């Protein structure tokens, strides 16, 4: 049976009174590139953390790669790659040391780690930066290195939390080329972003506001449905409409 | 057990420690500096007390008496050309610590039938020098008077000091420094290392790996246990080579019980890391604990000498028990059964502290 | 000035927003005052003494009573049978064992000379030394009572008077010195760590690109710690007064002045350390070894400086705490004025100026 990569049904996460994620539902199919959009503080990072097993949901149902987010977070972690918003590699270690370390953390044997470092450094063009302290690298290279670490164990699903913030357009373009290649190989990409041009490259997107999903579908369909010129206009239109409704 | 992941974590931790030149220097220098300073300085014996002598007798006998005071090296008497009204001023300027007034009838009193009275004034702001100085003066005076009058005392107390017959304070301090180093290094480094990962966001990245809680814990604790042990070996070796500190008991026993002690300090470090969110906070907690641990362990003054409530407080201090163990093994050659009380206390500590910390330390974020 | 004020305000927010750290900064001096005041007592009492009495005469009972009725000696942890003294000491149940051989009572009654034996655990030096002092004294008093009356007269009687701290309480000695320790801790340790923290998190770079000079940043960051240090110092003075009856005889203003000079020197040390390191962890270890340890060990705070070997004695001259400890004790306990402390004062000012110069130069070099 062809299982969906991510299914969420009425998932919520509360912090005391505050509903960071409020009753959201969506499904992401295997091999899909899914854009997870929303204003700052809309609950995107909280959702990603629940899906990656970092945070326990308050209520609802969720599966990632067929595993339950409540009870099977360890199996989930084996099947996914994760790249967080903040650069979260060891700045005092070289890229190679970082990769070796995370490879071991995913329980890969050292022959496989060496092979993967070779493959990824070629694919991401990291070779000449691999032996410098990663904290001293320019942002773009750091993000590529972080992607390399997330891909080490050849995950079927990739969670990326604003992977390209603060990166120049040329780098962003190359970064997305890699993501396309991955998608073509059947990897599911679940990505949050603030760049609407990036969102337009996605198969489907969702737009979140104050913990709820206010729109879900193909970028082109959403734009047309709201009668706007492009995705950026649509996004602004949607969020301001929500704001005025809440006010 | 995820052997590969564990090995990877430990390797990473060591790379991080050894890549920082300053850290490396400190790891080697700290035990040696501490040992040198404590070894040479931590000596509660007081010698060469600055004593102003106002000798109004000016006789051969009084001069002889002052010589007797100087002889043991306890006092450095200096004839005072000042008025006795200056005594307080001399104390305030720290030019004298004690003053002695020998009255004009000193010789007559001592050699005749009456008693010679000598005035002794001490600067009590340094209470230990004052107390010890008064004791010395009394002992030397009694001895001197007895010699002059040729009186024999029929009772005699013969001492035998076991384990450290020359009463070298270094021998007594080295086990203490070993205990202090193990405590400070492990509690501080452990708590800070985990919080640093949280502060930098790398903990989040670690948490999405399939590494189990136990692997992560062990991977964070083992490097600091090794480092603590290394500091201990360094301090011990240096102490033995430089100060010729004897080692009476069993080396394996000391290592085994140090391992047990490390479980408590690592547990405390881990606990601090679970209740703090920045390195600064973690450091404060670790430091707060270290001050408490050092002062109530008996390192400087014996536990039995503290007021009752402080003595009860020392039961909350694992270092107190480890200090007993370290001194017991190194100086008295104590065996496992001699130290059973301390061992039990440490086991209890380790189980409770580690238990609480491990329960609190979870791979989820909230 | 305004810029400095804003930086200082930011630093104060940092401190206030973190109540746990603030609590520790306040609780630390309190804890240390209580521990040093109560736990560290150089007058050794309650020494656990085991007695093995083979004589079992009324005289031996009297002697044992004399030992236990003094405050210096107390009963051992476990009851002692007529056993092996060494085993008793090894287990740590007693610090010393007094062995009264048979014939003690007999010897006293007939006036024969007699020797008693005492085994002492040398693994705690302080106790071992105290046992010898006290037991000798106790024995001497009981022996003197046995001598014919005429022989005692003609001795030397010492009339003693202790100024400033007549009861010779350890707390009066330690607690004022503690101020020196706390001030260096707050000034050198905390500042070196906050600066290292800004470096580690990358915010230092951010600050340096703002239109403020490095010196302004430094001053702004430091000012809050000066206040915390002074607050802690005042806290100790108050606790010393209320809990330990430590007087404050001298001038408060003079004390404040010297404290500021001392804080200046310590801050310079903190800045110096922070210019040498990159991470908070290293800053902390560095500050502990380079400032706390010497301030405790080489300042005369606990151990007499003049008994130190020449090298360490020499090193003590460049440690600000050495002078400041004397100044505090002089002002608080003896009511000493500026003229009595002129040497210490000048030395402190000199050290402060030297350290500030070095720190400023180092800091500028790092920035440039």
Question: Which helices and strands appear, and what pairs or packs with what?
Answer:
The complex is a heterotrimer of chains A (247), B (366) and C (368).
Chain A (H helix, E strand, L loop, with lengths): L5 E10 L2 E11 L4 E6 L5 H8 L7 E6 L2 E2 L4 H7 E4 L11 H11 L4 H15 L14 H13 L5 E5 L7 H16 L3 E5 L3 H5 L3 E6 L2 E6 L1 H7 L5 H16 L1
Parallel strand pairs in A: 3-8, 3-9, 6-7, 7-8
Antiparallel strand pairs in A: 1-2, 1-4, 4-5, 9-10
Chain B lengths: L2 H17 L1 H21 L7 E7 L4 H12 L3 E5 L7 H6 L5 E5 L3 H6 L4 E8 L3 H23 L5 E8 L6 H32 L1 H6 L5 H31 L7 H25 L3 H17 L12 H7 L3 H15 L7 H21 L6
Parallel strand pairs in B: 1-2, 1-3
Antiparallel strand pairs in B: 3-4
Chain C lengths: L1 H15 L2 H21 L7 E7 L4 H12 L3 E2 L10 H6 L5 E5 L3 H7 L3 E8 L3 H22 L2 H4 L3 E8 L6 H32 L1 H7 L4 H31 L7 H25 L3 H18 L12 H7 L3 H15 L7 H26 L1
Parallel strand pairs in C: 1-2, 1-3
Antiparallel strand pairs in C: 3-4
Helix pairs in contact in C: 1-10, 2-8, 2-10, 8-10, 8-11, 8-12, 8-14, 10-11, 11-12, 11-14, 11-15, 14-15
Overview of this structure, please?
By secondary structure, chain A is an alpha/beta fold. Chain A has helices at residues 44-51, 73-79, 95-105, 110-124, 139-151, 169-184, 196-200, 219-225, 231-246, and strands at 6-15, 18-28, 33-38, 59-64, 67-68, 80-83, 157-161, 188-192, 204-209, 212-217. The radius of gyration of chain A is 18 Å and the shape is globular. By secondary structure, chain B is α/β, with parallel strands linked by helices. Chain B is built from 14 helices and five strands. The radius of gyration of chain B is 28 Å and the shape is elongated. By secondary structure, chain C is an alpha/beta fold. Chain C has helices at 2-16, 19-39, 58-69, 85-90, 104-110, 125-146, 149-152, 170-201, 203-209, 214-244, 252-276, 280-297, 310-316, 320-334, 342-367; strands spanning 47-53, 73-74, 96-100, 114-121, 156-163. In chain C, α3 links the parallel β1 and β2 (73-74). The model of chain C is unreliable at 149-154 (pLDDT under 50). Chains in contact: A-B, B-C. The interface between B and C is large, with 118 and 120 residues.
């Amino acid at each position: 049976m062809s299982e969906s990569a991510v299914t969420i049904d009425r998932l919520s996460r509360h912090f005391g009174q505050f509903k960071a994620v409020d009753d959201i539902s969506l499904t992401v199919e295997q091999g899909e590139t899914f854009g997870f959009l929303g204003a700052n503080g809309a609950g995107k990072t909280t959702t990603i953390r629940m899906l990656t097993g970092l945070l326990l949901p308050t209520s609802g149902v969720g599966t990632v790669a067929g595993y339950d987010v409540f009870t099977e977070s360890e199996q989930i972690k084996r099947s996914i790659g994760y790249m967080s918003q903040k650069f979260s590699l060891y700045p005092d270690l070289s890229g190679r040391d970082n990769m070796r370390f995370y490879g071991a953390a995913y329980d890969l044997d050292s022959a496989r780690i060496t092979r993967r470092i070779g493959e990824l450094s070629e694919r991401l063009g990291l070779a000449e930066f691999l032996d410098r302290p990663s904290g001293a690298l320019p942002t773009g290279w750091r993000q590529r290195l972080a992607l390399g670490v997330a891909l080490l164990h050849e995950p079927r699903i990739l969670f990326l939390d604003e992977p390209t913030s603060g990166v120049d357009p040329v780098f962003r373009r190359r970064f997305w080329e890699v993501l396309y290649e991955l998608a073509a190989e059947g990897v599911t990409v679940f990505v949050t972003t603030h760049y609407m041009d990036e969102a337009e490259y996605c198969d489907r997107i969702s737009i979140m506001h104050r913990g709820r999903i206010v729109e879900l579908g193909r970028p082109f369909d959403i734009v047309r449905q709201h009668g706007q010129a492009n995705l950026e206009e649509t996004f602004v239109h949607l969020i301001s409409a929500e704001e005025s409704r809440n006010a | 057990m995820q052997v590969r992941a564990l090995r990877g974590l430990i390797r990473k931790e060591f790379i991080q420690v050894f890549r920082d030149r300053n850290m490396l220097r400190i790891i080697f220098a700290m035990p040696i500096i501490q040992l040198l300073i404590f070894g040479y300085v931590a000596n509660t014996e007081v010698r060469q007390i600055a004593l102003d002598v106002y000798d109004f007798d000016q006789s051969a006998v009084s001069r002889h008496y002052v010589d007797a005071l100087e002889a043991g090296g306890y006092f450095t008497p200096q004839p005072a050309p000042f008025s006795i009204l200056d005594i307080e001023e001399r104390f305030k300027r720290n030019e004298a610590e004690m003053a002695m007034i020998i009255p004009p009838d000193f010789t007559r009193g001592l050699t005749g039938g009456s008693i010679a009275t000598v005035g002794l004034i001490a600067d009590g702001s340094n209470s230990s020098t004052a107390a010890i100085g008064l004791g010395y003066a009394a002992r030397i005076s009694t001895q001197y008077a007895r010699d002059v009058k040729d009186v024999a005392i029929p009772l005699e107390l013969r001492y035998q000091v076991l384990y450290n017959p020359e009463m070298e304070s270094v021998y007594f301090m080295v086990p203490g420094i070993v205990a202090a180093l193990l405590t400070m290094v492990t509690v501080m480094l452990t708590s800070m290392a985990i919080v640093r990962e949280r502060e930098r966001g790398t903990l989040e990245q670690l948490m999405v790996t399939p590494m189990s809680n136990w692997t992560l814990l062990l991977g964070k604790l083992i490097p600091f246990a090794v480092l603590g042990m290394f500091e201990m070996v360094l301090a011990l070796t240096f102490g033995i080579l430089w100060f010729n500190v004897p080692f009476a008991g069993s080396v394996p026993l000391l290592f085994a019980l140090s391992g047990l002690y490390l479980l408590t300090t690592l547990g405390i470090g881990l606990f601090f890391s679970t209740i703090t969110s920045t390195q600064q906070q973690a450091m404060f907690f670790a430091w707060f604990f270290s001050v408490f641990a050092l002062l109530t362990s008996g390192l400087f003054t014996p536990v039995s000498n503290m007021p009752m409530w402080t003595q009860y407080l020392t039961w909350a201090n694992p270092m107190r028990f480890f200090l007993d163990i370290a001194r017991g093994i190194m100086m008295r050659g104590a065996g496992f059964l001699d130290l059973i009380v301390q061992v039990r206390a440490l086991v209890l500590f380790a189980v409770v502290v580690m238990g609480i910390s491990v329960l609190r330390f979870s791979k989820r974020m909230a | 000035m305004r810029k400095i004020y804003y930086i200082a305000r930011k630093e104060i927010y940092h401190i206030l927003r973190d109540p746990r750290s603030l609590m520790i900064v306040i609780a630390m001096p309190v804890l240390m005052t209580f521990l040093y005041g109560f736990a560290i007592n150089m007058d050794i009492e309650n020494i656990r003494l085991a007695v093995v009495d083979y004589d079992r005469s009324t005289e031996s009972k009297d002697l044992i009573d004399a030992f236990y009725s003094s405050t210096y000696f107390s009963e051992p942890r476990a009851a002692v049978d007529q056993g092996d003294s060494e085993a008793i000491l090894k287990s740590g149940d007693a610090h010393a064992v007094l062995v009264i051989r048979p014939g003690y009572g007999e010897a006293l009654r007939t006036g024969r000379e007699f020797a008693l034996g005492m085994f002492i655990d040398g693994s705690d030096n302080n106790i071992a030394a105290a046992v010898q002092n006290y037991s000798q004294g106790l024995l001497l008093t009981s022996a003197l009572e046995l001598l014919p009356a005429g022989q005692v007269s003609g001795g030397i009687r010492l009339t003693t008077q202790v100024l400033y701290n007549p009861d010779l309480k350890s707390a009066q000695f330690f607690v004022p010195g503690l101020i020196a320790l706390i001030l260096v801790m707050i000034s050198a340790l905390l500042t070196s760590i906050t600066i290292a923290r800004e470096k580690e998190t990358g915010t230092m770079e951010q600050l340096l690109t703002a239109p403020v000079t490095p010196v302004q940043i430094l001053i702004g960051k430091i000012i809050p710690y000066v206040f915390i240090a002074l607050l802690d110092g005042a806290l100790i003075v108050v606790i010393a007064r209320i809990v330990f009856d430590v007087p404050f005889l001298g001038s408060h203003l003079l004390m404040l002045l010297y404290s500021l000079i001392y804080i200046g020197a310590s801050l310079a040390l903190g800045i110096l350390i922070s210019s040498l390191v990159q991470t908070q962890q290293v800053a902390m270890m560095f500050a502990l070894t380079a400032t706390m340890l010497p301030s405790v060990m080489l300042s005369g705070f606990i151990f007499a400086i003049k008994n130190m070997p020449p090298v360490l004695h020499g090193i003590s001259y460049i440690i600000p705490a050495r002078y400041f400890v004397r100044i505090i004790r002089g002002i608080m306990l003896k009511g000493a004025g500026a003229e009595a402390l002129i040497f210490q004062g000048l030395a402190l000012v000199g050290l402060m100026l030297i350290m500030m110069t070095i720190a400023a130069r180092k800091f500028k070099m790092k920035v440039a």
